[in-house]
């Protein structure tokens, strides 16, 4: 084997995506499957490119280089399916999961991958580059490359359209950062790996794994900065579609917690998709069993001492309500959250505004219950602003 500077980019990319996959494994219940898949495919592509680049001068290591190129061919064939699949389910999962489209895409990817490694349509020969071996692409390169580019463009476009429809700022930032990451990979891979072979230029050594490494770092930025890992699996425990009892969509407030809880329980018992958010309290058994619960406490789902984490609450609500055309959300004892944990009036107002936007953007009912005696008048005005009294229904 021969190690040259050409091997540095794939090694860097492999290190990043191994780290990402290890993180995915730790928090796998929050990460959608396509995120696992396309990170793994980036890893596989990088491993193939590393084999190709360290295979050494001819003639001894030609077979090793060929194996590397075939690994790249397999990873590339499945990347468009993974990208599009991811764009369907992130950051919010709609009811229409596009199963037919996804099945067709994965079958197409499997066929392209099989043809790429069993025929000479994609890899017609291996030639000597200055540092080692490289592939001479056959007529199938046009189909293989166009499929990757087309799938990536569709995924980016879908993510951008989704970002315009999201009501929460964190959701929009998450989506746009990932679209940017995919766009960087698309541009660099197209310039160095797709266009030259079409025009018969074989002496440009593709540096595809450099943008892959950049993509991985941007994904890490999204995970850490925008809390991508929180609540991707939010969904009702036993709620069903098609229930007779419909919610009154909008933002509501109630200064009687018992009344708000009783109202919420009526819909919960009817099978309406229900989200219960509590501050420093353990929910009743019936609520915990039949509704999705978010506990805000130091040992709960959201640590209230982390103000940045609390700001993700509207996004978690949006992820939940986007999955159903009939849902109800109860935020109970919001005065405890305000009194003990919000240190910034501006942050509190921003969170409430985004919660109200969720109620306006989706067919959902969001209720904030509070105790008047524990709050100052200006806080009560902030909670009730733009909403209706639950008792007015």
Describe it:
The protein has 393 residues and is of the alpha/beta class. 58% of the residues lie in helices and 11% in strands. The protein has two domains: 5-226, Rhopdopsin 7-helix transmembrane proteins (Up-down Bundle); 250-392, Rossmann fold (3-Layer(aba) Sandwich), CATH 3.40.50. It is built from 14 helices and eight strands. It has a six-stranded parallel β-sheet with strand order 5-4-6-7-3-8, sandwiched between helices. A two-stranded antiparallel sheet has the order 1-2. The radius of gyration is 25 Å and the shape is elongated. The N and C termini lie far apart (75 Å). Mean pLDDT is 79; it is low at 229-242.
Largest sheet properties: 6 strands, parallel
CATH class placement of the largest domain: Mainly Alpha
Structural class: alpha/beta
Query: What is the domain tally?
Result: 2
Radius of gyration from the CA trace? 25 Å
Strand order of the largest sheet: 5-4-6-7-3-8
Topology as a string of helices (H) and strands (E): HHHHEEHHHEHEHEHHEHHEHE
Distance between the termini: 75 Å
Range of helix content: 55-70%
- Kindly estimate the percentage of residues that lie in beta strands according to DSSP: 5-15%
- Return residue spans where pLDDT drops below 50 for at least 5 consecutive residues: 229-242
Overall spatial form: elongated
Name the CATH architecture of the largest domain.
Up-down Bundle
**What is the CATH H-level superfamily of the largest domain?**
Rhodopsin 7-helix transmembrane proteins
Number of strands: 8
């Amino acid at each position: 084997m021969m190690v040259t500077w050409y091997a540095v980019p794939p090694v860097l990319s492999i290190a990043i995506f191994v780290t990402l996959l290890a993180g995915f494994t730790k928090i796998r219940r929050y990460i959608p499957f396509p995120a696992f898949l396309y990170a793994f495919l980036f890893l596989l592509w990088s491993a193939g490119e590393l084999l190709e680049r360290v295979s050494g001068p001819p003639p001894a290591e030609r077979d090793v280089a060929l194996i590397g190129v075939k690994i790249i061919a397999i990873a590339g064939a499945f990347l468009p399916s993974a990208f599009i699949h991811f764009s369907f389910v992130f950051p919010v999962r709609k009811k229409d999961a596009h199963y037919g489209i996804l099945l067709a895409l994965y079958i197409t990817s499997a066929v392209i991958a099989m043809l790429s490694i069993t025929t000479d349509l994609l890899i017609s020969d291996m030639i000597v580059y200055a540092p080692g071996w490289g592939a001479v692409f056959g007529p199938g390169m046009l189909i293989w490359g166009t499929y990757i580019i087309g799938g990536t463009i569709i995924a980016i476009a879908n993510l951008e359209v989704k970002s315009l429809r999201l009501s929460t700022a964190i959701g929009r930032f998450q989506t746009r950062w990932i679209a940017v990451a995919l766009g960087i990979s698309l541009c660099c891979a197209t310039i160095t790996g797709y266009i030259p072979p079409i025009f018969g230029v074989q002496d440009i050594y593709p540096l595809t794994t450099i943008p892959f490494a950049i993509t991985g770092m941007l994904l890490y930025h999204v995970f850490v900065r925008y809390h991508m890992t929180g609540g991707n699996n939010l969904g009702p425990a036993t709620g069903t579609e098609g229930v007779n009892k419909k919610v009154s969509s909008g933002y509501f407030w109630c200064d009687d917690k018992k009344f708000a809880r009783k109202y919420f329980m009526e819909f919960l018992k009817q099978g309406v998709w229900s989200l219960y958010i509590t501050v420093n309290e353990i929910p009743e058994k019936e609520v915990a069993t039949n509704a999705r619960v978010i506990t805000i406490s130091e040992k709960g789902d959201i640590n209230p001492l982390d103000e940045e984490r609390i700001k993700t609450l509207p996004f978690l609500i949006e992820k939940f309500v986007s999955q159903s055309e009939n849902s109800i959300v109860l935020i109970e004892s919001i005065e405890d959250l305000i009194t003990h944990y919000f240190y910034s009036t501006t942050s509190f107002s921003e969170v409430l505004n985004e919660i109200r936007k969720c109620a306006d953007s989706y067919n959902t009912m969001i209720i904030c219950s509070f105790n008047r005696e524990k709050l100052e008048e200006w806080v009560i005005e902030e909670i009730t602003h733009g909403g209706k009294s639950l008792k007015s229904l």
